[in-house]
Amino acid sequence: QVQLVESGGGLVQPGVSLRLSCAASGSIFSINTMGWYRQAPGKQRDLVATITRAGSTNYADSVKGRFTISRDDAKNTVYLQMNSLKPEDTAVYYCNVHGLTSTGWGRIDAWGQGTQVTVSS
Fold first, then answer.
1. What is the pLDDT of residues 64-80, one digit of tens each?
2. What is the torsional sign of CA 5, 67, 41, 47?
3. Which residues are CB-contacts of 90 (< 8 A; sequence separation ≥ 6)?
């Protein structure tokens, strides 16, 4: 049983920054890749950014240079620093964790509950 709790979303004006956090807890042995996805109204859920345990990152073209993903393994937490926010960034943001459970050596593929980010003037 793994739970992800997200925080940091909100309603902001264009150009403002937000930092999203996602903390994983429960039966975790190890975490490999952590990531953020987003889904705008009427759109599919798309990758925003991922980070491996070695620190390698991958970003969607639309957020490169503006968003930064990072992780704190001691806290089982992944962050998404979002700068220069644009109206097109408006979406529900979901965190995702892949890893291994500490119970039964199973795989983890866990999702957060989603947090709304709205960018509007």
1. 999 999 999 999 999 99
2. negative
3. 40, 117, 118, 119, 120
Spell out the SS3 assignment of the chain: CEEEEEECCEEECCCCCEEEEEEEEECEEEEEEEEEEEECCCCCCEEEEEECCCCCEEECHHHCCCEEEEEECCCCEEEEEECCCCHHHCEEEEEEEEEEECCCCCEEEEECCCEEEEECC
β-strand pairing of 77-82 with 28-39: unpaired
Q: How far apart are CA 29 and CA 44, in angstroms?
A: 31
> Quick check: helix, strand or coil at residue 90?
coil
Digit-coded pLDDT (tens) for 8-50: 999 999 999 999 999 999 999 999 999 999 999 999 999 999 9
